Amino acid sequence: MTIFYRDDAFLLSIAGALLCAPAAAQTPPPADDAASAPASGLTLGEVIVTAQRRRTDLQATPIAVSVLDSAALRDRHVQSLGDLRDGAIPSLRVTPFYSRNSALIVNVRGVGVLGDSNQPARDQGVGVYVDGVYLGRAQGLGAALYDVASLEVLKGPQGTLFGRNTEGGAVNIVTRAPSGALGLRAAAGVGTVGGYSGEVHLDLPALAGVAVKLDGLVTARGGLVRNPLTGQRPFDLYDRRGGHVAALWHPAEGLSADYAFDIAYDGSSPLYYQTVAAGTLARAPAQPVEPRRARVASVGVPQQDSVGRTHGHRLTLDWQAAPGLELKSIAALRALTQSQYDNGSANNSPFKPHGLFARYSLADFDQRQWSEEVQLIGETPRLHYLAGALYYRERVADQAQAFNTMRWNQAGTAATVIPLTLAAQPVDRASRVTTESLGAFGQATWSPAVAEDWLHLTGGLRWTRDGKRGSLYVVNNRTPSVDGVVAPRELDAHWSRVDPMVTLAADAGPDLHAYARWSTGYRSGGANSRSLTYAPFGPESVSVWELGAKSEWLDRRARLDLAVYTGGYSAIQVDFSANYLQRDSSGRLLETTRTTTETFNAPGRGRLRGAEVDLTLLPVEGLTLTAAYARTALRVPATTNPFPQSNGVAVATPVRIYPVYTPRDAISGALDYRAAVPGGTVRAHVDAAADSGVYANPYDPEPGVRQPRGAAGVVVNGRVALTDVAVSPGATVELALWSRNLLDEQHLFFRQYTNLLGTAGFFNERRTLGLELGLRF
Questions:
Q1: How much is the pTM?
Q2: Per-residue pLDDT tens for 177-198?
Q3: Are 498 and 441 in contact (CB under 8 A)?
Q4: CATH code that applies to domain 18-179+207-776
C-alpha cells in the first residue's frame, strides 16, 4: 500500500495530532458496556458488533467497521451525531448542511451526498439506524443521543444486511435495553458558554415478565458568537431535550416483544458566516473583514432558534422458532417537524447606500414515515444465513421563504431593522412528495468442512424498488411557470435495482482474519425542490472491491486492522445553481426572481479508491493507545453545467467536479489511562483528530478560478474523571472534567469564494469546558 502526501500543512497537522495523543476509532469500554468486554491485565478485550445482524467478534467480521462504545462517546463528550464532525472516525464525515445544525450530511468513504441533502425528494447515501429503524431524513439527525451502548460505522455498501440507502455504508446505533433489575444512572453537569446537561436512566425490576427502562436527558449551550441586536438569539447555540421509554416482555420461552417510544426537542441557531478576505464589491464600514474566528457578529440581525420535534414508536418481535432459527419483525412509526431559520450571512453582503441586506432564510419541513422489516436469521454447523424484506413509506412537505431584514444608512456605518410580519412574506417554494420503497435482501455464509472451518464464502443479493410521487406547487409565491405553461410541476418516477455481494474470508491463523469482498450499492433518484422544473434525476450506484485484514499481536496486546478498496461510482448526483432569468439546456425560459438549484447525474463512471488503518496498543496495564487513518480518493467525471454564469445563455461546457465534505487524508487517535487510587479509580482520556480539509462546493466558482478547500487543523478533546467512589453500599459517584477543542484550535473548515464577495465560510467551534457529577446504583 502506497500513500502520497501533497500538503505540507497536513503533514504538520498529522505530526501534531500524534504528539498530542495517538487517536482512535475503538476504545476499551467499562465492564458494564454491552458492546465489548474490557481489557484484562495485558490483554485487549473482545469487541462485539451487530454489523451482520447477529452478535459477532469484530476481529472475525469480514466488514470494515469502526466502533465507538458508550465510554468512547462519553470521553469525547459526544451528545449528538453532530459532535462527530471533528473526525473521531476518519472515514465518517458528519457535516451540517451549510449553516444549519438542524440538518446533517453523513458521508462514508466519500459516498453519501455531494450536494444539498435538505431535500424532501432526495435520499441519503448512508443509512442511519437506531435499534434497527432507518431514519429517513437529514433533518432530525442532530437530536441528542440517549443511552447509546455502541455506535458502529459499517463502510462500503451494506444493502444485503440493512433496509435501505446504504451505498456508502451504514451508521448503526444500538441503545441499552431494559435489564429487568433495579438500577439508576444519573449525571448532571455545567459548562462554559452557559452550558448545562442532565440525564437519568432508570431500570425497573421486571414485573410479570415485563422489564421497563426510562431515559430522560437535557443538554444545552449558549451561542458561540454573540448577536449584538438586542433581544435576538446568538449564533451556534443548542438546546436539546428528550425522553425515551422501553419495555421488554418475555411472554414465553424464546419469544420477546420490545416496545420503545421516544420524543425529542432540538433547538439550535445557525453557524456564523464570516468574510475572511474581501471581494471586488464595496463593503460597509460597519461590516469589516473578519480573518479570525469572531466572538461577536459584526452586524446584529433578527434571529430565532430552528426547532426540530421528533417522536416515534418501535415494536420489535423476536421468536426463537427452533434451535438456530430466529424470526424477527421491526415495525416503526416516526414523525418529524423542523423549522430552519438562518440569518447568519450579513457579514458577507455587498454594500449599497440605503440598500437592503441580511437575507433571512426560513424553511419548514414536515415528515411522517412508517416502516416494517422482517428478518429470518438462521445457522447450521456449516451455514449462517439471513433473509429479509422491508416496506418503507414516507410523506414529506417543505415550504421556504427568504427576504432581507436590514437596511444600511447612507454611510454604511449603521443598520436598521425592517419591520416585518413573517406571515405576510411571500413563499419562495413549496413541495410535497410521497416515497414508497420495497426491498428484499439476504446473504448466506458457508464454511466448507473440507477447509477445516478456516474458509468462509458469503454471497448476498438485494432487490429494491423505489417510487416517488410529488409536486412542486409554489415557486416565487405563485404556481410555477415554465415556458409559459402555468401548472404545478409533478414528479412520478420509479426505479428498481438488483445489488449483489460476494465475500471470501479466511482464518489464516488464530489471530489473523483476511477477506476479499465485492459489493454494489444504490441510491434512488428524485427531484430538487429548489429547482424550477422539478425534473427528475436518476439513481446513482457504486461498485467496490475491498481487501482487508484483521490481526492481533503480542499476545493480544496489539490489534491492527487494514483495508484497501477501489471501485466505480456511476451517475453521481450533482447540484448546479441557476442565475436569475435563466434558460435550461433545451432553451426554455425559466421564470424566477431567485437563485435556484437543479440536480443532474454526472456522465460516465467516477472512481473510488482508499485505504484505512486502525491500530490499538496496550503497552502496559491500564494504558491504551489507539490510532486510525483514512485515505480517500474520489474522482467525479467532468459534467456539463446547464446553468453557466453567462448572460442566461446555456453553454455546453464540462466543468471539474470536486468531492465535497470529504478530506483526502484524515487521522485520529486517543490515549486512555486507568489506575486504581484509594477510594476509587482515575480515568484519563485525550484524543486528537486532523484532516486535510474539505471542499464545500462541487465546482469552480468562476472559469479559471479553482474551488478553495477548507483549512486543515488539529482538534484535541480531553476528559479526566475520578470514578467508582463508593458513597453507600451499592452506590458510586463519578466526578469528571472535560473539554472539547482543548487547545482552542481555529480553522475555516467550510470555505467559499466568489470574485464579487470574496472568501467566506464557517470556523470550527471554539474551546468549551465542563464539569460533570454522576451517580450509579
A1: 0.90
A2: 999 999 999 999 999 999 999 9
A3: no
A4: 2.40.170.20
